Amino acid sequence: NINYDANGNLLAMKQRGQVNNAAGDVDKLSYRYNDNSNQLKSVYDTVRAKTGLGDFTDSQTDGVDYAYDGVGNLTRDGNKQIASISYNYLNLPELITVTGKGNIRFMYDAGGNKVRKIVTDNTTGTAKVTTTDYLGGFVYENDSLRFAGHEEGRIRTVYQAGQAPTFVYDYFVKDHLGNTRLVLTEQTNFTMYAATMETPNAATENLLFSNIDNTRSNKPVGYPADESAGKNESVAKLTATGTGKKIGPSLVLRVMAGDTIQLSSKAFYKSNGPVDKNNPVVPAENMLADLLNAFGGATPTDATHGAPASVASTPFNANFYNHDYRQLKEKNPDQQPGKPKAYLNYVLFDDQFKMVEQNSGVKQVKAEPDQLQTLSQDKMVMEKSGFLYVYTSNESTQEVFFDNLMVAQMSGPVLEETHYYPFGLTMAGISSNALVGKNYPENRRKYNGNELQFKEFSDGSGLEWFDFNARTYDQQIGRFIQIDPLIENNQEDYTPYHFAYNNPVRFSDPDGRIPIVIPIVVAVIEFGEALWFGYRAHATLSTAMNLLSEATGKNGAKPKDKEVAPAAKDETAVRLPVPEKAIDEKAKPKVSPELAEKLEKMESTTTPDAPKPNGGSSKNERHGDGGRAKSKAEKQIEQYREQLKTATGREKKQIEQKIKNVQRDAAQKAKGEEHSRANKR
Prior knowledge:
Distance between the termini: 37 Å
Protein name: RHS repeat-associated core domain-containing protein
Largest sheet: 12 strands, antiparallel
Helix content: 10-25%
Structural class: alpha+beta
Shape: elongated
Region (Disordered): 579-681
Number of domains: 3
InterPro entries: Rhs_assc_core, T6SS_VgrG/RHS
Strand content: 25-35%
Mean pLDDT: 81
Strand order of the largest sheet: 7-8-9-10-11-12-13-14-15-16-27-28
Radius of gyration: 33 Å
Number of helices: 9
Number of strands: 36
Organism: Chitinophaga eiseniae
């Protein structure tokens, strides 16, 4: 929900999202402005709890959050703890001081292109300086090449100890606005996680797995020889009796959609092993308590995708154990009542902690006592990104021994999936990111293809805004922090701090200097206008689609009357032939002769009950205000087209945009008057 004032300044914005595994309010912002000004005075968020989702945080209590200099540049942001911002002669931020954190300095070339960023971080007690250099498409951090940009993404440098650096291609998948939605990579990594239970390996295994030390036991008498994973002296002993351990070695693994997982474990039990015949199976609530205890302090392991990630809460609860887990056991074809209820379990939860049944299951021990058996799940591809929980368990009172739990992970192509709110804030609750740690430097080119400035300091905080080249954009509140340098170019009706005419679905602003309409959006709108004109000429939808196919060359038709749209980025976009005049009974589209002839034929073949295009209308209806508006529009367009003959570059694109605006306004006015006349009739 969004509200504006008459100048297009935001007054209120409400955004909802995934909060603590449930839908809830992320932001409920109220904006206040200085008197007779477009400059912000304060922003108040009624959602006081910190969501940790990168959204707006209201940190001020004095009622004045922002300050500006004499030319309209933001100089203080109390909510981000920014004490001061100084600017260079191009109104670009030069030095930013953050209270209690440090400072950030930017350097530019004569054209305003950023060439260096120096962060002085004081959050750790000792000043830490990080220098990032931008040399064309190459980005260096402290003199080490991080990546080089290419047309469809980046070439990333991979550093590994004791090896020469290698280079990997990453690709950005973007939507029609230029927002990066997916990051795909050619790199593949294979990682093996092993719980051998052997004491010499304990230090390493305890970093990856839970329940290693407290389930370790000497292998029992009669345990078959097995040195497949090296010397074998210890196993994990599980039993549901008394103080016995019910949950064995456990692993939480961060996975991304497309990753391939394979897992296995050894299992053994004796035919004459001790059994509590009075209580053969432990109650569900006891199993759940042990499960929560096993994973209570677990940190997801992510050696394939980077450093350990964090999980805010556990997915295990009574509903999982009594419903979801029971279903997993019931669909297991090897489920038999005559053998111990001991399992190798694997459960995938997506990022919203909803179980993904296709990648979840249990493997029960076989009815093969006194034999070493293997429980395994062959290669399976992850359907969704999330967290894979792998663990061994025993619900019966008979002793079961597990050993050599192995989990193999082959990374897939997906590194990052990002979704956005309309004004550019990331929907963190439903976005996935494997780019953690030094293995994968996180892609910062996100909204409108621009670089996100964030996490400059060691505590994870930072500027949290976008560098749009000519200006800086704060996606948390949907406003630029400087005035548009081209505000006088057909933007006088809007606040100089607006983003994309407050219509970020239709318009994009790739460089911060006047929004542009997206070619594909233009095509859809003009297609709608073409359908409307076809309706006025009593054409069917099928006929309109045929005309569209001829105009665009689709479905084998020969393209006719193509016109290159004035797009800054997509020079191959094709504009559909549409009317340049307002739409009324006499309007005709300026199209190729063949299409014009077909439209004339459609006008002459009206249905008996439908009024003819020129029939039944009075003189006043045919020559009323709509006609005068159309004539005025024609004159404006003629003037602009004369200017277009001598215009070049950006000026040419601006004039073309003005022509389209005049056409749109005239069409809307004529359409409104047509509805009014219809109501009168």
